[in-house]
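Journal club prep, notes for RB
We'll compare a predicted complex against what the paper describes. Inputs for the beta-D-galactopyranose case:
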Amino acid sequence: MERMHFLLFFLLPVLVFQGYYCQRGFAVTVTYDHRALVIDGHRRLLLSGSIHYPRSTPEVWPELIRKSKEGGLDVIETYVFWNYHEPVRGQYNFEGRFDLVRFVKTVQKAGLFVHLRIGPYACAEWNYGGFPLWLHFIPGIQFRTTNTPFKNEMERFLAKIVNVMKEEKLFATQGGPIILAQVENEYGNVEWAYGVGGQLYVKWAAAAAVDLNTTVPWVMCAQEDAPDPIINTCNGFYCDQFTPNSPSKPKMWTENYSGWFLSFGYAIPFRPVEDLAFSVARFFETGGTFQNYYMYFGGTNFGRTAGGPLIATSYDYDAPIDEYGFIRQPKWGHLRDLHKAIKQCEPYLVHSDPTYVPLGPKLEAHVYYKGSEGCAAFLANVDDKMDMNVTFNGNSYNLPAWSVSILPDCKNVIFNTAKVVSQKILGDLSYGSTTIMKENLFATSTWNWYKEQMGIWSNNSFTASVLLEQINTTKDTSDYLWYTVSIDVNEKLSPNKEKEVFLLVESLGHAALIFVNKRLVGFGYGNHDDASFIFRKAITLKPGNNTVDILSMMIGLQNYGPWFDVTGAGLFSVSVSDLLKASGDFSSREWTYQVGLEGEYLGLDKPSLANSSLWTSGNQLPINQSLIWYKTTFIAPEGSGPLALNLASMGKGQAWVNGQSIGRYWPAYLSPTSGCSQNCDYRGSYDASKCLKKCGEPAQTLYHVPRSWVYPGENLLVLHEELGGDPSKITISTRTGQEVCAHISESDPPPVDYWTLNSGFNPMLSPEVRLICEQGWRIASINFASFGTPEGQCGKFNHGICSADNILSVIQEACIGLESCSIPVSTLKFGDPCPGLVKTLAVEALCSV
Ligand code: GAL
């Protein structure tokens, strides 16, 4: 029996998929009608997920895509990131993490389709929304409106990408995986701000895209006025209410948020899977045929790719695959079950439009008929509190609040969005909790350091009698710009006396360190919603000359909003007010500027400087100092999994491993202490601030180091610390195990993949506990097992009053040493410890490398 379960569980989906995609490699046509995308003449119901190629490394792309396919996806969606593909006008980069062709081919090899969102505006919490900064300096340019210099550049880049894809034969009509392309991104949300120019731009962008003759349909997301033949698609937390702008276009959803993005200084957003599954089921219930998770795998904003302001380095997004590439349970598993249930309905869904059947207040059914061949139905309870019983087709059903039941034969419920039967995982590497990890400490004695210069550090500085806007000045070659001014205190007026004054610094953002006479007096900073800030502090000036050095910092260029590209940064006013007399405005004094840090200029982050005599060594490791570079070497924990640096002891800065930037860090910025809800109620409308965790804590303490960036033996770690921290407390870890658990009752349905339209559920089948480890890991021990009335929840199970004997050994025998196992929840297996009661099987196991 077990063997049969195993075969059904693992082989059946593989066979189905292979049959499905036997066409790959052959040219197919892609068109659409009012119901769906039509691929090779067949309407298709498609499940899609976003994976942005540069947010992971090419070494792990195949694994991420394999997990996406196993999770039930048909399509991988990605943006194209112009600023990294064309860092200098006319000079292209398609290497490494930016090897778009390799990424698309990796998806193709797995037998999945691609939705290529060329944009070229991406948004995506990506630096400058994906635009190259040089674009901003083209004379007369205005972004995203009917402006000739902009349109020329946009057209050139669109054509470049389409041609690269055509040359590699990557469009579906050429035998490739690309079935869909996107031009622009959510322009409809900002169009109002561009007036008539905006409307003309939409028409122009649509025509420019169509002219490229990709031979696959184009979409514009959140664009109600998308001209034919472009499909306007929905983005949002729910899209069941959405209708396309023409009856000839299918109802498609390009961004269903699996969670939300993270900003420094904010609590961590998460979206309960019951609500996510509810939104997806409601969409297919009400006529949708294409749905994309934004993100299915979020990944990491390495280097300075994070958008802004203040987007964190982790782009985990609470996605079904976590930042480190591990499957997030129960999210991944519950959605996988949902996808299987929806696919069971595909023959009906692609055949007809839904028929609405009212069932009562806030109770709805939608039925899809296929002539005399029967029907599939979705039953929904959209009340956010009350579970309800409904009667449908003469049968009665219990519908939990805020849930959808799926009935592929209009009779049997094979899935309900609120009933999660997938296993759970204890701890979560992305959030730094109790997952089993192997940790290495760095020995204090191995650290070297270099004190960054304070203020102007070279003769390539320059002066101006005005406060300069930062982005125009640095051209984003560095996060940093020094602003230096000298303040003269008249010795005659205050002979030999120090003067107490107020220093007032006003900045457009994003943060600044302020030094007076080379001593740090403070740190000002904004936040993601408003990066501007005012810094006010009493300072002491000495008679004669005083210097004020301000290091203004950028934390990711703006990526969203109307005219986001001209949002400025840096100081706009500096004044000193005498306690007794009038204030002095220093904004138009002579300021001296220096772009970047000396350490950046020297290349201290580079392995070639690792043995340089610039670095100081000694027993007295300086801690809690601002503007200091640290360097050490480390041996990575064994294994082949991803690594995480724990930077909780540090303030704010950037870190590099073997010369590769792992991103900006800022654990010193704590999130507000309120607004979190550990057990966020999934019932009711979700928004990005509804479910938050880690209030009063850093947004991010763990920083991802891809395994392919470290070598066996010694590795170099360099940090540039801006505020002050203690590097001796940094650790590096890898995950070597995880605890999985499940809790399934006799009254739960058998696993959804045992259902087929021809034969339904085999009446002999029972519900099952399924334990699945990451690929290559094995079940090492069973930490808890009880069949009867176990109490508590995952991680805290106890035996209840009724409990079968000897079940631990039965489960050990069935599972230990295997990558996965299934155990039927049945008295046939365990005997009946309490006849008449509905029994539950609860199991907790340890998977390890
Ligand atoms: C959307 C945008 C995406 C992403 C998302 C938030 O508005 O289209 O690119 O920025 O918001 O994560």
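Talking point for the session: Confidence is low (pLDDT under 50) at residues 1-23, 429-434.
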